Amino acid sequence: MRRILVVEDDALVAFDNEYGLNDAGFTVVATVDTAEDAGQRIAEGGIDLVLADVSLRGEGTGIDVARLAFAAGIPLLFVTGQCPAEARGFAAGCLAKPYSRADLLAAILAVEARKSGRKARRLPKALHLFGD
Fold this sequence. Notes:
This protein is an alpha/beta fold. Helix content is 36%, strand content 20%. It has a single domain, classed as Rossmann fold (3-Layer(aba) Sandwich), CATH 3.40.50.2300. α1 links the parallel β1 and β2. Keywords: DNA-binding, Phosphoprotein, Two-component regulatory system.
């Protein structure tokens, strides 16, 4: 999971995530703040993981983005203040805000491990993987 789409409406959080992910060796394919823009990027392909807040600008929510990512076979990890229980069937999990850069990276590794059939080494306290 090297190519990540960041879907976040808070510019400061989006910038921090993008900077931290790039610094850790990931490629942020795009950072968008609407469900519509996220849907267009997902349709273009080339994404290994979507990180999405639930609340977004404009029409649609992160839950809508999760459905689109699921349909495209792309795991989505919510990074949000309120974990949406109704998304359990089509999202990988939820990392609760506020979170540290280390917790974000550990959460990504946990999603990657689960997708590969391995057990994650360290789960941040703020991470809830769906399906547990």
